[in-house]
Fold each of these.
Amino acid sequence: MKMKLATLALGAALAAGPALAELTFPSLSYRTGPYAANGIPFADGYADYFTLLNERDGGIGGERINLIECETGYNTEKGVECYEATKGSGALVYQPLSTGITYQLIPKVTADDIPMHSMGYGRTSAKNGKVFSHIFNYPVNYWDGASVGIKHLLDLNDGDLSGKTVALVYHNSAYGKEPIRTLEELGKKHGYDLTLLPVDHPGQEQKSQWLQIRRERPDYVIMWGWGVMNQVAIQEAVNIRYPMENFIGIWWSGSENDVKPAGQGAHGYKALAFHNMGSDYEIYDDLETHVVSKGLAAGSGDQLGTVLYNRGLYAAMLAAEAAKTAQEIHGTSNITPAMMRDGMEALEITEEKMATLGMANFGPEFKVSCENHGGDGLGAVAQWDANSESWTLITDFVQSDQDVLQPLIEEDSSAYAAENDIEERCN
Amino acid sequence: MFYREAGDFKTSYPEDGQTFPIKLDRFGFYAVVFIGFVIIPFVINDYWVNSVFLPFLIYAIAAIGLNILVGYCGQVSLGTGGFMAVGAYSCYKFMTGLDIWIGGVQYALPPINIFFSVILAGLVTALVGLLFGLPSLRIKGFYLAVATLAAQFFLVWLLNKWAWAYNYSASGQISAPERSMFGVPVTGSNTEPWAVYLFCLVFLTVLALIARNLTRGSIGRKWMAIRDMDIAAEIIGVDPLKAKLSAFAVSSFFIGISGALFFSVYLGAVEVGEVFGINKSFLLLFMVIIGGLGSIFGAFAGAAFLVLLPVFLKNTLVGGLGWPTDLAAHLEFMIVGGLIVTFLVLEPHGLAQLWRVIKEKLRLWPFPH
């Protein structure tokens, strides 16, 4: 009984634990619920990278890393609980991997002076650092994704999309609605027709949407899906014999979990990407020696080399590099969340840097600045090969259409600034 | 020894008819109110307010509302999530300035104070509830549950589809701007824990008192008559139209207020499909059933049970014992589910009945015979 009481007291005390002399990275992960299949590999990659730094280098700049994992189940209420439970422990940066939770935390982290990094998700206009001081979404955002996807279609059609039809199958939530505005604007510019097909959470029921696609036969289908919705959509596309090479998913709809259930039928399915695929990098050797063989791999350790695992590694790498930058700027190894924010704002990722980390050619080069929290918007297209069961990039990293996106970002962020009485920074 | 009415003399009808006729009970209630209003605001921190107190207070309001409908009037409803969504979105519209478009020109009211926005949101929800309560005049039981399920899906769909409801924001999310009461912010990001706590506590206290007094007055008796046997109730002169619709309206008013607080004070940003989905309707129905149908105390007990238990388990398993988060999350489902089944087997009338039994035992203690 005593033991039990001690446990309870500890549970309660956890909420207000003092900041320890180590770098704390919270991981708001989801290993349960309808999005678990995608949440697990990301969380594993995120955790393994920090374990590697601890084991191989003794942390970042000599400070050990303390990773606190908290299960959100992709649920905003639990996300809030996780945020409140971890923020007191000196959490350096939040990466909730959920657009809903990101929206929720944007005002909170700003008030609490903790940076948040929503890599390839979240609120797109957070790219405007003049308004969103604590939110970062480098290296890409959804609108970049929409634009890169359309650029790929332009390439396929010799630069002319007029008269073509494009259907957007999207998760009917803030996440899925993000690209609509951009796709509409791009439609005006390039002359294609856009059809919108919303799919409700969690996305297991898509018969009517695909029936409509079968009837109208759009030239291209773009998908903004997550979790079980991806698998169902790809299976439905196979069922109506939609040509797979004309079906493009956002980077969150392009993992092994999404295509494998459809088997051979998914061959040729395309998805966007903002980092490279596969496990052919030096860092994987280090992971094997320092993490996997020591039995320290997160989860069941079977996700190495998958797309989302790589994304978790990438997210952790960017966080660790930002922490290093912060340590350099402030001349102290024990950084605070506010220092971490400065580090993120001064982050520069070069090919050299990635090569020394054992991740040569893993992602594009980019530089963050006070005005630009979103990088350069470089994305590529990957294609699934069902025979070798692997994803490969089939294009170079190309930049999104900044002429169309920049005004949209200005408009949305200034609306946010007006709503919340925010003064522009960086002047 | 405890809860004895011996020696507790009443000399007037109001005294005899008060909510807590037994002295000890009454003082217990005063003590709880005192602790709630005077002590907790001084010791509360961000974690406690956001993961324990706010959800508890807000769910308790919704559970009282649903209890009026299901527990007192016997009309099963699965539309709670949808009604909460109506409350949240109408609160958003009122607090940002309700607008109307006539011939391409926008006419807007000025933003209304958050306190009145919440109450107005409750009134709007009451109207919507009234509308969806109409079928209850013709259909009963499980069939009514299915009809209210339609309300759930329709309202969520509508609020996701209708851009006016979320002020045409690109993402379809609504976010609460900063609003203050007496100069103290209660919504937005710069709130103090005690302020939001007290804001919700005031609503809960007032609404609980209203609910308690409604349910033991003539309206409540009519509801219960309808619940127990509607034909008999009609014969003794209860108008089923008025009774059922008033139950729907009052219940929706409560649920609307809880939805408004849920959005504006607790979460701050809401997406209708994710937050107010069918899961929310079930969760609230579970709260009411586990707490005890037809009991105001039961609504509190049910809300406390289903809000506190997961947080408590999470902190114990992950924080205390250091288990992996996914294992703990799965185990949490099993433990909560198992406890619900055990409770219902041992005490089908919920935690409120358990409390009644304990009180009865305490009255006789230490001489049970």
Note: Residues 1-20 of chain A have pLDDT under 50 and may be disordered.
Amino acid sequence: MNRLRRLLTASIAIAAMGVVSPAFADTKGKIYYMVPTLLDEFQTESVNAITKFMDDVGYEVVTLNADNKTDLQQSQMNDTILQKPSAIILAAVDFNALAPSIDKARAAGIPVMIFDRQITSTPSDLTSVAGTIEIGQVAAGEIQRLLKEKNGAVKGKVLQVLGDPADPYSLDIQKGFEDKMKEFPGVQIISLPAMQWEASNAGTIVSDQMVANPDIDLIFLHAAHLSVAAVAALEAKGKKPGDVMMISSNGAPVGLDLIRKGWLNVEVEQPLYAQAAALAMFADKVVNKQEIKPGNYNVLGLDSVMTIEKWGPNIKIPGAAITKENVDEPRFWGNLKAPADKIMPVQ
Amino acid sequence: MTSPRQRATAEFILDHLVWFMLAAVLIAFSIFVPNFFQIGIFANIVEQSTFVGVMAIGLAIVIIAGHMDLSVESTAALAAMITGILFCSRGIGMGLTFAPEWLVIPVSLVISLAVGGLIGFLNGFFTIKLKMNAFIVTLASYIWVRGLVVAISGGRSAQDLSPSLRSIGIEQVLYIPLMAWIAIICFVMFSFIMGRTPFGRHVTLIGGNAVAAFRAGIKVDRLMFISFILAGAIAGLAGWLLAIRTSGATANLGTGMLFNAFAAVVIGGVSLKGGVGKLPGVYAGVLLLSSIHTAINLMGLPAHYTQVILGLLVLAAVLLDTLKIQIRQRFA
């Protein structure tokens, strides 16, 4: 009987220790991360980064994947609001369609942070972006440089391979790129979308265009994984690294590998780690509804600017152009070396 | 009153209508689309038909047998991802190698076929043995197999496929890419199997009237089970080719191909009711779709038009199928 009592007491003690274990005791609350898809490496790594950085500042992260479906993400938002989390991080499938869900969450007292895909049509509590339009602009600058180096002036033929034509992310990059190229009428841009961001569709486009327009100087692809298929198509046409200049965006590991092999000239990086770290730095302020002050902040070594926009506090982190010279720097998320140092909350 | 000669001519045209449509479309594009009329573009069309074409063979066999297989796209993606993980050297690739190096070709092919065959076996088991609805069973497979692709890859990609495998995606024979030859050989082989062997004839009979086939002594369940396994294995082959084409695999590889394969099957004259259809027609359907995709690429039209045209083409194909039956009745 005594043995049974001791066993029971020990079980209760172990259970109690579990309840008040440091992991539970230190958690300030749950934050839901609404990831648009897990079918690309940027989003997959964003889950790891956000989970790690939020853990650094004391929050537990629950991730919900919307499989690129707007209606599913709206349902997930509704379900999440009922869970009353400390905050929601949203990387929207569709920038505008999720605006009512953001309003609903905030009306229920749940702060909403926007990650990567900027939503300007409704207020939110913090936005952390590199800026998709800016990515297009950075790419345009690099393309101008490369065309000038090759042709002596900013002129030539550029094939732009977009992502899915229904994805505002790709359309924004296109806008930023084309706006900045307007001042160079000597550059002919052929724009075609790779439906559903599917790599073999990009390969098909490149394959056709290299036959129809063999004088293409440069190919600009809106995601690094598309450039893998583009390279395969170029190889099949007997091309060697450097024969056709290439640029892609987002900074995924595949893109960095292609730079090392000489196929890609530039990869325009989205500073994934810094974008995720910025959310963690301000998480306490967002959750406790404290004021976020505008100004310059150092986010993982990057000079970032916090402004107060009509949609709320907005921190913009500069995207970088990755070339053969700097490709091995660990700050690029494509090297998959997440910063080991703990993120410190902004006081 | 029609003469036997008129009747034979009409039958020939009706039986090969999709080839006439393909010829008309190619002539029209050659005249009106700049840069279309050249060997390189025709080679591209044949090459781009490879993946959907191979996938459509298995799908057509199951449909002719009177069933449905919605899982072929995800099955191809799984085979591609496993090929990528095992034989790519970067990303999540393990970079397996063999001595001699060319052994990677048969080994990876057998693995892809086995992966596809296994999914087909599961589809067949639930549909034939447990008498579950094929549409639901294969829809479930479409979902869980794609989920498995994401799970085993962790959303990451595999790149840098073994050079021996990549050579299949680069080499050409008589101006036509080697991969396209593989698709053509598959079509010839399975056209022969479906048209000239007891297996093919029995599968067609089963699709037309399974009860009558059973009463005639045909092993209906066994042949339908084999059809599912074949569709899976052929989808595995499509995935293997897809991995070679893209020199690796991403988690969303092959997305959207199911609907293209379905469109090609229907345009190619395979009846969704089963029992009717020939594989050469399916190949013509795939070439037709690929020609349209290529023309839209060259014209620089927004890709949405491809989907609009695709949808209208499927509708036209079904309409023509209905008209064919009426015309045949008139000549009968």
Note: The domain at 16-30+37-331 of chain B is CATH 1.10.3470 (ABC transporter involved in vitamin B12 uptake, BtuC).
